Amino acid sequence: MCQNMKSSIFIVGDSTASSYPEERAPQAGWGQVLNQFFTDDITIVNEAAPGRSSKSFITEKRLAGVEEQIKENDYLFIQFGHNDAKKDERFTDPFTDFKYYLKQYINVALEHKATPILLTPVQRRSFNEDGIFYETHGDYPEAILQLGKEENVPVIDLGKRSKEYLKNLGAKESKPIFLWLDVDEYNNYPAGLQDNTHFSEYGAKEIARLVVEGIRDLQLPIERYITY
Q1: pLDDT averaged over every residue in the chain
Q2: Residue 195: beta bridge partners?
Q3: Which of 15, 19, 162, 174 is catalytic?
Q4: Average pLDDT over residues 143-157
Q5: Is 185 a catalytic residue?
Q6: Is the pLDDT of residue 1 over 70?
Q7: Which one of 60, 135, 150, 185 is the catalytic residue?
Q8: pLDDT of 3 over the 90 cut
Q9: Residue 137: pLDDT over 70
Q10: With a threshold of 0.90, does the pTM exceed it?
Q11: Which is deepest, 48, 133, 149, 177, by most CB within 10 Å?
């Protein structure tokens, strides 16, 4: 009986939240490491997938897969926006299509008596030559904030939280958060890498920490299971 009452956090989103195999280390998504912040009473089900937009995640039947598993007292964490701006079949207009698709995630959660949580897209490492941080997500964060109010759905403003975090670190000091790897530093990346979108394992943990802080600020019932 108690076992059935345990909550799961389902994560839907893109590469910034995804889980990666050992051969991609040290790359990690924040959803991959979120379990490190919770007791065993919470199960993390990370369904985030690289390259997906709010639209393509649905057209590929990935949301349908979540719907088959999610149950009462679970949570659905929804983070899209990175790929919705891509000018291909994944594209959604922020204030029309994007909100339309996000509502489908919300409805899946509510229909199964789970709690939907919207997240604004986590920031890229985006500093100009003068070291000034700039926004790369256009109107998508604002559309999410609007939808949260319209649908009375809690929002973790991960975009704002990560922006403040990266600005405080600065252009140089934020590199270890991302996949900035020297030549021969890691066997999986012998040529090195300079990636301002995807996270190192250390960076993924720091972003997951911001998500957990958002959970606390929203005073969600699952905060009692946070371990730090």
Answers
A1: 97
A2: 179
A3: 15
A4: 98
A5: yes
A6: no
A7: 185
A8: no
A9: yes
A10: yes
A11: 48
Joined together, the tokens standing for residue 170 give: 């600065």
Tokens of 197: 């979108």
Active-site residue, from 18, 19, 198, 200: 198
pLDDT band at residue 5, thresholds of 50, 70 and 90?
A: confident
115 bridge partner residues: 75
The DSSP-derived string for the chain is -HHHH-EEEEEEE-TTT----GGGTTEE-HHHHGGGGB-TTEEEEE---TT--HHHHHHTTHHHHHHTT--TT-EEEEE--TTTTSSSTT---IIIIIHHHHHHHHHHHHHTT-EEEEEPPPPP--B-TTS-B---STTHHHHHHHHHHHHT--EE-HHHHHHHHHHHH-TTTTGGGEEEE-TTSBTTBTT-EEEEEEEEHHHHHHHHHHHHHHHHHHT-GGGGGB--
Contacts of 49 (CB under 8 A, 6+ apart): 13, 14, 15, 18, 57, 62
